[in-house]
Amino acid sequence: MKILWTTLISILISSCAVKTIRNSVDNKILLNEKFYWVGANINGKKFDKAAMFVPINIDNLKEGAFAQFDLGSNTSILYQKNLTSIPEFNQLKLDSLPDGNTDDGKKVFVIRSANISIGKIHLGKREIYGFYNYGDEIKIDEKIPVDEKSIGTIGSDIVQNKVLIIDFRNETLSITDSLTSVAQSEFNFTDCKLVNNRIIVPIDINGQTMYFLYDTGASLFPMGTTKLIWKEISNDKIIDTLNITNFGNPVKMFGSNSKIKVKLADEYLSNFTVYYEGENYFDKIFKQIECDGIIGNSFFLNKKICIDYKTKRFGISK
User: Fold this and answer.
1) Which pTM does this prediction carry?
2) Is the domain of 35 the same as that of 156?
3) Half-sphere exposure of residue 209: CA atoms within 13 angstroms, side-chain side
4) Is residue 170 part of a domain?
5) Which residues sit opposite 241 in a β-bridge?
6) In whole angstroms, what is the distance from residue 295 CA to residue 273 CA?
7) What is the CATH number of the domain that holds 68?
8) What is the domain range of residue 198?
9) Number of structural domains in the chain
10) CA 64 to chain centre
């Protein structure tokens, strides 16, 4: 399996005009859909919950396909080799984009007015993008692990102007138009920023508010940040090194134990490992996406979280 840390698609397809067609479905009934954890072995270390995958269908052509669920990606991206290896999906029309190349040379296509579903959650018609000549051939078989049936990555464009609830304990997610008062009362909310489709949450660090991208694709560690902030949070002793990839690009992460508590909403977070990236590659990206770092799923594995993309709020279950 290819473990992606955070895909950061706006950086990759900066030459493409990314546009989402207004969602044509109003999800007023709260539907739960199961998500699936996929594990990984990195540097001899086993991660049981390395990546989240969801069932995905396009134009109701073929059930049984999956995609990684990655809110760190501001745009959903399909992989042509994966997609076209499923005969039913060859009915989809892949349109090339003028000047549609990523910074690292990947050619981009778009499927216009695609009807997208995550399991039984129907998300309506929208444009969805993809990379030509990327990925691997797959086949749909219930005996095959979900990551080997993946056709791409579902990003945060899918949930814009929606409310997303992720129940980590029961491994389900819901997407709806609004919360009932009863549902709202389950969570402690904090106001957030929404930058290029991504939720940026405020975290109090030593009395100073810093802003972190919440990324479901960052399941390998609790927090990644700049080396400067890492020094403020950590005990400065390297206890872990991770060699991972970001769309095929090698990345080395260094981790230390936290020495302080930090606060998100009404939750104090402590005794976690905080990482920085050795070549400062992500420092530049953090600056571009207006954040100080990234937090993943580790803080919430016994919780529910609610992200209200309409009102720009992030909630943690009480």
Assistant:
1) 0.89
2) yes
3) 8
4) no
5) 254
6) 11
7) 2.40.70.10
8) 181-317
9) 2
10) 21
* pLDDT tens for each residue of the chain, 318 residues long: 343 443 443 333 333 333 333 333 344 456 899 999 999 888 788 889 999 999 999 999 999 999 999 999 999 999 999 999 999 999 999 999 887 778 778 899 999 999 999 999 999 999 999 999 999 999 999 999 999 999 999 999 999 999 999 999 999 999 999 998 888 999 999 999 999 999 999 999 999 999 999 999 888 889 999 999 999 999 999 999 988 876 567 889 999 999 999 999 999 999 999 999 988 888 888 998 899 999 999 999 999 999 999 999 999 999
Return the amino acid letter for 135. G
CA distance 167 to 124: 23
Q: Dig out the tokens for 3 from the structure.
A: 């473990």
Residue 191 and residue 137 share a domain: no
Looking at the structure, tell me whether residues 118 and 195 fall in a common domain: no
Burial-class residue 250 by CB neighbours within 10 Å (0-12, 13-18, 19+). exposed
Residue 312: C-alpha distances to residues 128, 188, 216, 217, 309 (Å) = 23, 14, 17, 20, 5
Distance between CA 38 and CA 298 in Å, rounded? 14
Length of the chain: 318
Identity (one letter) of the amino acid at 167?
A: D
Task: Give the DSSP per-residue string, 10-45.
Answer: HHHTTTS----PPP-----S--EEE-EEEEEEETTE
What's the CA gap between 174 and 27, in Å, rounded? 10
* DSSP 8-state secondary structure symbol assigned to residue 89: G
- Number of neighbouring beta carbons within 10 Å of residue 274: 26
Helix (H) or strand (E) holding 182, with range, is helix 181-184
Structure-token match 């954890």, residue found: 37
* Same structural domain, 154 and 260: no
For residue 278, the one-letter residue type is: G
C-alpha 79: how far from chain center? 16
